[in-house]
Amino acid sequence: MYCDELMFSWLAAGNASTKAASCSDCSLGAIQAQLSSPFGYNEEFAQEFQEVKSSCGSSGYSFTTPTAYAISTKLPDRDEDANTPSCLNPYIVKSGDSCDSIALAHQISTFSVIKAGRLNSDCTNLRPGVSLCLPAPCNLYRVQPGDDCKDIVKAHSGVTGIGFLLWNPNITPLCTNLADLTGNLICVR
């Protein structure tokens, strides 16, 4: 909770991008946790984190590249490739579907639909007939103009800032891109 309050106070004061904030244990630890998660890891983000650690003079905060996340617990048949994750209940995109309608119908974030279909951030390349392996449902919140992470976290009891960021790996660790997600559905539990 301490780090959540500290990070949000930096955001409110406009100090979130200072070297002191970026090099703090709270910032580096949160990013380390995100990169250790199969939901929050990506190579570009990992490289940026290495650069931040270097500029801070920090040699700690190691993480390992997580294994790919598989939604299925079904064991593969001997004839199947054991390294290929399977999806027990794929969703087949229908004519008229949008990322938003799929997210609402399945109670998942807009980002989850985009990631499952390897889609453009605006979903313009969503096509009928494509199979999507969707994650487990979550409680949703639609990002409103002027929202900030601190207010969203406070409005949903039991949610911590770290949990919020882990559930929404498309939100930057200091929530600096939340305005870009206005209108999108995000997970709040």
Entry summary:
With 189 residues, this protein is mainly alpha-helical. The protein is built from 8 helices and 4 strands. The protein has helices at residues 2-13, 19-22, 25-35, 43-56, 99-106, 110-117, 149-155, 161-167, and strands spanning 91-92, 131-132, 140-142, 185-187.
What count of domains describes the coordinates? 2
- C-alpha-based Rg, rounded: 18 Å
Q: Give me the side-by-side strand order of the main sheet.
A: 1-2
Structural class by SSE content? mainly alpha
Quaternary organisation: single chain
Strands, total number: 4
Helix content: 25-40%
Mean pLDDT: 80
Number of helices, counting only DSSP H or I runs of 4 residues or more? 8
Residue windows where pLDDT falls under 50 for at least 5 positions: 78-84
* Biggest sheet overview: 2 strands, antiparallel
The SSE string, one letter per element, is: HHHHEHHEEHHE
- Percent strand equals 5-15%
- What would you call the shape? globular
Amino- and carboxy-terminal Cα gap? 16 Å
